[in-house]
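Hi support team,

I'm filing this because I wasn't sure whether my run with NAP finished correctly. The job status page said complete, but I'd like someone to confirm that the output block is well-formed before I use it downstream. Pasting the exact inputs I used:
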Amino acid sequence: MPTIALVTGANRGLGFATAEALARTGASVIITGRDSASAQTAADQLAGQGLAVEALAMDVTSPADVRAAADAVAERHGRLDVLVNNAGILPEAASDGSNEFADIDAFRRTFETNVLGVANVTEHFLPLLRSSSAGRIVNISSTMGSLSDQSNPSSPYYGSVLPAYQASKAAVNSLTVGLSKQLSATGIKVTAVCPGWVQTGLAPGNRDNAPTSADEAAQVVVTAATLPADAPSGTFISAAGPVPW
Ligand SMILES: NC(=O)c1ccc[n+]([C@@H]2O[C@H](COP(=O)([O-])OP(=O)(O)OC[C@H]3O[C@@H](n4cnc5c(N)ncnc54)[C@H](OP(=O)(O)O)[C@@H]3O)[C@@H](O)[C@H]2O)c1
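And here is everything the job wrote out:
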């Protein structure tokens, strides 16, 4: 029986690379995206390489979309083994710098996608993950959300100030800890992952300046998605190892 994996925001960027990497491990991967045509195009590209993928439309900020997607997965597969909460945005990267501290509209949109989206998707897919013999939840976070790094003058992240994005990833980390405790009596493991600085469309300049390709970054996501049964739950990792909260 193949592993059934679902990746949010998998039509491009890290989500697409993760979907491909998971499919190459033999998993059957559900590529979700808020634009159904774009999700289908991504799935067609991987299916054309002989990989087991399918597409499903899901805007993580839409409770109706998420409910319908969970119903579709229940009907098609009856369970979910791996959930990768990848969809994320960084609208502050396009800010004109006119705010004293935070662009409140960008703040609201960031939290709707990066935090409420993770909670919404997790809530609706948990019954399917409970039907798995080895459920794994991977929340794509960022060292930008590490409170330790934000407050450590010797951290390379100390000088970065993107209040909405950083607070959203700190909240994702908190969801990871809370969820791992909630699920401690189950075999489901929850992991927050920093993929590094990755060549994607997340922010202007990423493609030209980031040192890590999406394919390389996807490897640590696969590590978290395939944790062995004796691995701890509720951790925060990057390719280099544990990340301080
Ligand atoms: N790139 C980095 O350096 C970096 C570093 C640390 C963490 N991360 C995290 O990695 C994750 C993936 O980002 P990325 O770098 O791959 O950026 P990206 O290339 O901009 O991809 C973001 C993906 O999220 C999707 N998305 C956005 N809002 C959505 C919504 N409401 N519902 C469903 N999907 C939605 C996008 O879909 P559309 O095509 O429809 O917009 C796209 O597929 C994010 O959580 C990001 O915070 C990235």
